[in-house]
Amino acid sequence: MSSSAPAVIARRTEVLAGISTFLATMYIIVVNPSILSQAGLPFSGVLTATVLLSFFCSLMMGLYARNPIVVAPGMGLNAFFTFTAVKGMGLRPEVALGAVFWAGVLFLLLSMLNVRSAIVRIIPLPIRYAVSAGIGLFVTLIGFENAKFIIANPATLVGVAHLTDPIILTFILGLLLTSVLVVRDVPGGIIIGIIVTTLMAWPIGRYWGDASAVNFGQKTLVNFQGVWAAPDFSLIGKLDLKSSLTWALWPVIFAFAFTDLFDSLSTFVGVAEAGGIQDADGQPRNLNRSLLTDAVSTTIAGVLGTSPGTAYIESAVGIAQGGRTGLTAIVAGCCFLPFLFLSPLLSVIPSIATAPALVLVGAFMMKPVTRIDWGHLEDALPAFLSLVLIPFTYSITQGLIWGFLSWTVIKVAVGKSRELPIGLWIVDAFCVLALFGGH
């Protein structure tokens, strides 16, 4: 009896770690549909796709890769889908979903051929760090914009809204509350902030009638018919595979695949170091299987009807709680499943309630920028261009392109062209084609 006690305690620790990881990542159930619905996809359909992807791929990560890491639609990647691919390039959402699928296939091939080490050598580390932070700024900008805190200004391009506006005040209160919850390490702090901000926003829709800020207006949250419904499978199989597999769309497929790959690699490395889950060579445990799982999640995402899936850095929350095995990911994945039937309830959450989560997620993504050597200008300047051009141009692709090209030009100018791998020259050629290909 006593001999089995450690095993029971270990399993209980893994289960609790899985629940903690879910609480840290469940904001994506609301935030992902909130972003992708702006691309013309139905909120309930994206919510269903988000839950299914998070459930199945987290299970695969736990059972196949045996790592305590949750997989779900990636922040930044969903912004790229909506604001660059669909709104920026004018793609139909179905075509963008097709691009997600082909990006997953490309990622899958790269993972199966085990070329990750070559890819890591090709892409300069400062560019990788800068792109991650740049996406964080991009996501933050979207959060402020969704809350109508940052508005257009003819004189200065952008400006700040009047702070006396009830919508802005609600957003500020929600942002401060969510920040305090996160700083105090309250489990599920982000989702608690979303719920409380939603409740604070209810009087705006009821008494001010601002339907643009509050989705539910005069509706009540106590209507049972309004919180429970069958899943919306309308987006499954809606991707346009033929139209998305064209030369003109290679930059989109490239950006999806490689941004996902860089994000996954950095997540696996960071989580492995934090939790001590490394192999004998000091590499993240079962890295190939983990990357293969990540690639499968992106491929499936296009079929289900959402942006690419990726490993979540919030998995570190569960690892901090003692999660070390795949059971943590399995438990977290199963926690997503009940929300398959709650799309009507979750669809009433207004944009000003998810905006604080976007702002804070952007802050979480800024950490890699500290790894850039800002005193070494030949590395720092290309990284800086990637960092600022992503939010300033509203395009992750532009940040990647100018980061690669400026890195190459500066290295050649200082006489270090021999340090540039052949693969980077190939990437540069694609970047030039993208610039003059009507992106």
UniProtKB/TrEMBL annotation:
Alphabetized InterPro entries for the sequence: Azg-like, NCS2
Transmembrane segments: 15-35, 41-63, 70-89, 95-115, 127-144, 164-183, 190-209, 244-262, 325-342, 387-410, 422-438
Membrane-protein topology: Multi-pass membrane protein
GO cellular component entries: endomembrane system; plasma membrane
Annotated GO MF terms: purine nucleobase transmembrane transporter activity
Keyword field: Membrane, Transmembrane, Transmembrane helix, Transport
Places the protein is found: Endomembrane system
Family recorded in the similarity comment: Belongs to the nucleobase:cation symporter-2 (NCS2) (TC 2.A.40) family. Azg-like subfamily.
Xref: PANTHER family: XANTHINE/URACIL PERMEASE C887.17-RELATED, XANTHINE_URACIL PERMEASE C887.17-RELATED
UniProt-recorded name of the protein: NCS2 family permease
Species, as recorded: Spirosoma agri
